[in-house]
Design goal:
Radius of gyration: 15 Å
Shape: globular
Oligomer: single chain
Helix content: over 70%
Order of helices and strands: HHHHH
Number of domains: 2
Largest sheet: none
Number of helices: 5
Strand content: under 5%
Number of strands: 0
């Protein structure tokens, strides 16, 4: 089923908001795919379009992607945890969000990642 221009614009705005939070393109695409029931290819096209719109609006926007992690199992768990973090944030579920942040930090420490700010 083809999306209306309003639906497409809503999804682009959502993608821009998530990208502004510093999330990686893959995480944003997976969120769009899950929340709106769009195909993976469409989700990635939407993320690319949203990123171009962000750059056109303010070329100074820069975000640091989450650093790559070498352990495959932990990497998969971290991706799943990020997806759950996005869902908890969007739902306004503070308790789950706080718990997931702690779990994510714990996974990050497993690989010796620095938590300094």
């Amino acid at each position: 089923m083809k999306r209306t221009s309003e639906q497409k614009e809503l999804q682009h705005e959502e993608a821009k908001r998530l990208l502004d939070m510093g999330l990686r393109s893959a995480d944003v695409a997976a969120t769009l795919q899950r929340d709106y029931g769009i195909s993976r290819a469409t989700a990635y096209r939407d993320v690319d379009a949203a990123d171009l719109q962000r750059f056109a609006e303010d070329a100074g926007i820069q975000c640091e992607p989450v650093p790559g992690i070498s352990y495959e199992d932990r990497d998969a768990l971290m991706r799943m945890t990020r997806q759950l973090l996005i869902t908890a944030f969007k739902a306004g579920n503070v308790q789950d969000y706080a718990r997931l942040v702690r779990e994510y930090e714990r996974l990050a420490r497993m690989g010796g990642m620095s938590q300094t700010v």
